[in-house]
Amino acid sequence: MDKAQFEKRFSKVSSFNRGRFAIARQIMTKNVNEVLDLVPILIHYNHPAIPGYRKNGVPFGIDMFTPNDFQRKYLQDRGIDPDEKTETFWPVYALYAMGSTSSIAQGQKSDLDIWVCVSKDLPNYEMNLLAEKCRFISSFCKALGADVNLFVTAENRFISGEHGTMDTEDCGSAQSLFLLDEFYRSSFRICGRYIVWYMISVEDELRDYASVVEDFYKLDWLIKDQWFDFGSVAKCSPVEYFGSGMWLVYKGIDHPLKALLKIILMEAYASEYPHTILMSMDLKSSVISSRTFGLGHDSYYLLYKKVSKYLSKIGDRDRLELVRKCFYLKLLEAIDGQPQSKLLNKRKILMRRVAKLWDWSSSYIEKLSSKKNLNLSSIKRFQNQLLESLLKSYKALLRFSVTHGIEYAITSDDAGVLSRKIYASIDRYPGKIMQSYSEVSNFMEEETLSLIMPSENTVCRHGWHVYPCAIDNIDLLSTRVVYIAPRAVEMVAWLTANRVLTSRTKVYVSARSSSVDYKKIKRLADDIDRFFFSKKIKVREDDLRKARDVVKSMVVINFENDITKKFLISNSDLELGDTLSCGRQKMCLIGSIDVISLNTWGELTCHSYSDGELGVVELLATILRSSALTVIPRENIDLEKILKVCSYSDEHGDLIRYDLESTIKGILGCYSDYESTYVFNVSHNTYEARVNEDSNDVSIIRRSMFRASDDDVTILSRFGMRPEYALQVPASVEHHATIGIMQYFFAREQEGWKIYIVNERNEVKIFYGFNGSRAALVNSINRYYTAQSDSSSAKSTLNFNLPQYFVLGNDQKSIHPFTISNK
Question: Which residues, other chains included, contact 134 with Cβ-Cβ below 8 Å and sequence gap of 6+?
Answer without folding.
Answer: 43, 116, 150, 151, 152
